[in-house]
Design a protein that fits this description.
heterodimer, A: 522 residues, alpha/beta, 6-stranded antiparallel β-sheet, 5-stranded parallel β-sheet, 17 strands, globular, B: 192 residues, mainly alpha
């Protein structure tokens, strides 16, 4: 296993080991580049995962201090848990559901296609879908996405069958078990899905793709990749010329370490990545690193989300089997005649009883709540996920008061719904209820958004320096050897789950960085 | 159930909500005085037996808190034991932190005073749940209520022995997942 010196200024340092950081690390290592990954969380492996929602949450979730602000209900119900993401090697690829969709063509050019939307900071990506398609191909092969690469779709579980029956009854056509990064047959040295139903708690069969047991060990096997868990990067340092020289991090014992770097790539997910840039402010960069545009932390997107659960006369046992292998794509198109820009997906979801009690209707109590919970075995569920509008005022800033255990200002996550988000959500709630009612639901529950599992946009790509933080390769406009490698690069959120796009961008970025290093451009 | 003996129709695997209590589970909510033999079979466990004297909170306070817990999250098919288990940790927290002790005692005193004023009896003796719920609504904005309620979300619903009663089967990887245990056995949907 590789071990690099702290003083080795020839390494690429990657902050974070998830879909972006983990993939980038392996891709670079395969090309002979020396990489040090600094992961804030511990290294939990498959044998450590537990099929228990709260125990798993304690094990895997980021629970370091954060502050939620704004008018979104999450700020009221969960004021210190704006997001549910992972702090463990593998990042959120440990607990993700596996849904792997490409953006639509128009979703790369929302300013051009949607036009002016009042209050929305719309911008076109500096790349098109056609630019990214070759890397989407590679990502789908890497992840083993079902319904690509001759990989069969997963079988539908009870929860899916209910949604499918209702969907077809009301006229939806694009209904299937979806494109999932979950093996429907053995592939890539990993077994096939055992329908365990604890996808959100780490896949105990390894059928679901996660960088933890694919990219990371593959990279480590080259001898070019060193992963340091329990290493929380506090600050990125630079020289007088404004070139990044390395990072300062707190190691396992809490001691401060300095790792030199030739290149630094930030992939801490969209709350910590801008926080790190802001906390790295200096005399030369008083507003934080790479922030000449003022857009670091801004344009925070977390998708329009919500859920619909339906109660039926007879049992469903929705928790049996894959949590999210089921999708309706008919509403993912852009069709302003519905009353909003952009589209949304409808995807099966299930929560166990403990999480249902916490998230069905946070704060609710009394008989109307408990009678809902008592229908649990007869419940089906779907998650609504759609494109939310980027707003400059939705942003990550350094909280003026709250500090973490190292004394550093923490992320304040501000979010207000845009009217477009509200219109889309209401439409989706109605459609979800209609689906379940079509097959006999006696009650339906339009459930409020959970703490954000999709976080995007806070270091966005732009053609012009003044509009965003990074260029089309995720390279920051202001600092040549500083890159962003996670979903904070997204200029738009699209209707679909972000992971496949994060992976595609990371593979492409690796090609770019390796080439630039070879040419001595970096 | 087979309607026609010639059809080999498979039936959805449903979950039996009956659960034999494990001894350890029962003991969590019990004073040591209850005989071990009674625990294995008896479901007739009264709350008053759960509290020995000498805890941080008076037994009457704990009894009222158990009643409050049930009124916040009423499930008629759940015996008192689940609510006792959910509330019991407050005794320890009150012992460790005087501010918690004060909050709980004053919260219960307030409810009892409101109940006396409106119904002439203590909270736990008010006859109808709906009446007690009205009293709880009166304190809904207090720290006392908010902390009890939010704690119950986990302390009540995260009891493994309770899950089966709600048709939730808990861990599955150790049983080979659901691939052979009915993940797709739904049998009542219209054909698509």
């Amino acid at each position: 296993m590789a071990q690099f010196e702290l003083n080795d200024d020839g390494v690429v340092v990657i902050v974070g080991s998830g879909a972006g950081g983990g993939t980038l690390a392996n891709e670079l290592a395969q090309k002979g580049v020396k990489v040090v990954v600094l992961e804030a969380g511990p290294r939990n492996e498959i044998q450590d995962f537990v099929n228990d929602e709260w125990e798993s949450f304690t094990q895997l979730a980021w629970t370091d201090m954060r502050v939620a602000s704004g008018s979104w209900r999450v700020a009221q119900d969960f004021p210190n848990l704006p997001a549910w993401i992972v702090k463990s090697v593998g990042g959120s690829t440990v607990h993700w559901a596996g849904a792997s969709l490409r953006f639509e063509d128009h979703e790369f050019k929302i300013a051009s296609v949607y036009g002016g939307v009042k209050g929305a900071n719309l911008l076109d990506w500096p790349i098109t879908k056609a630019d990214l398609d070759p890397w989407y191909d590679k990502a789908e092969s890497k992840l083993g996405v079902t319904r690509t690469n001759n990989i069969p779709g997963l079988p539908g579980n009870n929860n899916f069958k209910v949604m499918e029956a209702g969907a077809r009854k009301i006229g939806y056509k694009e209904v299937s078990t979806g494109r999932m990064a979950i093996n429907s047959e053995p592939r890539d040295g990993r077994g096939l899905c055992q329908q365990i139903g604890f996808c959100f708690q780490g896949c105990k069969s390894g059928a679901k793709w996660s960088t933890l047991y694919t990219e990371i060990p593959q990279g480590e096997a080259t001898g070019n990749l060193e992963v340091r868990p329990n290493s929380h990067v506090a600050r990125i340092e630079h020289d007088r010329a404004g070139k990044v020289t390395g990072v300062v991090y707190f190691d396992e014992s809490g001691a401060m370490q300095r790792q030199k770097a030739r290149v630094v790539c930030v992939a801490g997910n969209s709350l910590e990545s801008p926080r790190l840039l802001l906390n790295s402010a200096s005399t030369l960069f008083p507003n934080g690193l790479a922030n000449s545009s003022g857009q670091v932390g801004r344009n925070y997107m977390r998708h329009m989300t919500g859920s619909v659960y339906g109660t039926f006369e007879k049992p469903v046992h929705m928790y049996r089997g894959t949590t999210m292998a089921g999708i309706i794509r008919d509403e993912a198109r852009h069709d302003p005649s519905r009353g909003f820009h952009g589209g949304y997906e409808m995807e099966t979801i299930s929560l166990g009883l403990p999480f249902m009690a916490a998230f069905l209707d946070p704060g609710a109590w009394g008989r109307s709540f408990t009678s809902a919970l008592e229908t649990y075995p007869r419940m089906a569920g779907m998650w609504l996920i759609g494109e939310d509008m980027p707003q400059e005022s939705n942003c990550i800033t350094l909280d003026p008061k709250a500090k973490d255990k190292h004394g550093l200002p923490v992320a304040n996550v501000h979010y207000d719904d845009h009217p477009n988000d509200v219109a889309m959500r209401n439409h989706a709630y109605r459609q979800g209820a209609a689906i379940y009612e079509a097959v006999g639901a006696t009650v339906t529950y339009p459930t409020t958004p959970y703490p954000s599992t999709h976080n995007m946009g806070t270091n966005r790509m732009s053609a012009k320096t003044r509009d965003g933080v990074v260029n089309k390769f995720g390279q920051t406009h202001d600092i040549k050897n500083l890159f962003i490698s996670d979903g904070s690069q997204f200029t738009s959120g699209a209707a679909c789950n972000p992971t496949l796009t994060i992976v595609a961008l990371a593979i492409r970025q690796a090609d770019h960085i390796a080439g630039a290093m070879q040419r001595r451009d970096l | 159930m087979l309607n026609n003996e010639n059809e080999m129709e498979s039936v959805m695997r449903t979950v039996d909500p009956r659960e034999r209590y494990s001894r350890r589970f029962l003991l969590k909510g019990m004073a040591a005085a209850v005989p071990a033999a009674a625990i294995a079979t008896s479901t007739d466990l009264s709350v008053s037996e759960a509290w020995a004297e000498g805890g941080a909170l008076a037994p009457t306070t704990m009894k009222t808190l158990v009643k409050v817990a049930r009124d916040i999250y009423p499930h008629d098919f759940l015996g008192d034991l689940y609510y006792v288990n959910a509330i019991k940790p407050w005794n320890e927290k009150a012992g460790a932190d005087p501010a918690v002790k004060t909050m709980l005692e004053q919260g219960v005193q307030r409810l009892d005073a409101d109940a006396q004023k409106r119904h002439g009896v203590q909270y736990a003796s008010v006859g109808w749940e709906a009446q007690r719920v009205k009293l709880l609504q009166g304190v809904e904005q207090t720290d006392f209520f908010k902390k009890i309620r939010s704690d119950l979300v986990v302390s009540l619903y995260n009891q493994r022995e309770l899950w089966k009663k709600f048709g939730y089967e808990g861990p599955s990887a150790d049983k080979g997942g659901y691939i052979n245990r009915g993940f797709a056995d739904i049998d009542w949907l219209p054909k698509v």
